[in-house]
């Protein structure tokens, strides 16, 4: 898959540039059978409901669905394609819930916001943000949601 040609109009943010309540909506992502197959190949997860049409049709889903962790991975990738983005930092972890299946031909996007932030106690020059995030399908349904905790560089000279 070719790398998207994204032209950002805003610079990457230091921790100090963020404000609680800041929000962003990402570009969209089309879930295709080929992308689900590629995710299965990448991860080694060939669970039949994801890769076998006949099996999936007989399941309670009635069709092939994307891996739950594929949805979370797509959500993270969509955040990086958004205009609201931070300088490279460190992911501290996720809490994440899978609410609804993601089907082939669903088009998803994320909405996220700065839910909380604090200066790091152990790493001067860094701050921590918590980003409540929702993965939303074309029908406006939240299919997955959770929070991503990130450690972000602070602006030099501000700490």
Automatic annotation (TrEMBL):
Residues 26-121 form the MaoC-like domain. SUPFAM superfamilies: Thioesterase/thiol ester dehydrase-isomerase. Pfam families: MaoC_dehydratas. InterPro entries: HotDog_dom_sf, MaoC-like_dom, MCH/BMMD. Gene3D superfamilies: Hotdog Thioesterase. It comes from the Bacteria. Coiled coil: none annotated. This is MaoC family dehydratase. It comes from Polaromonas jejuensis. The lineage of its organism: Bacteria, Pseudomonadati, Pseudomonadota, Betaproteobacteria, Burkholderiales.
């Amino acid at each position: 898959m070719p790398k998207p040609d994204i032209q950002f109009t805003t610079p990457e943010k230091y921790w100090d540039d963020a404000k609680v309540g800041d929000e962003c909506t990402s570009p969209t992502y089309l879930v295709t059978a080929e992308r689900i197959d590629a995710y299965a190949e990448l991860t080694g997860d060939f669970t039949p409901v994801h890769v076998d049409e006949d099996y999936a049709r007989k399941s309670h889903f009635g069709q092939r669905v994307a891996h739950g962790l594929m949805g979370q991975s797509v959500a993270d990738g969509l955040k990086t394609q958004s205009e609201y983005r931070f300088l490279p930092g460190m992911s501290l972890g996720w809490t994440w819930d899978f609410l609804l299946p993601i089907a082939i031909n669903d088009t998803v996007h994320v909405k996220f916001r700065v839910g909380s932030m604090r200066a790091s106690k152990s790493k001067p020059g860094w701050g921590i943000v918590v980003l409540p995030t929702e993965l939303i399908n074309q029908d406006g349904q939240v299919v997955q949601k959770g929070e991503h905790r990130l450690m972000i560089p602070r602006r030099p000279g501000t700490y």
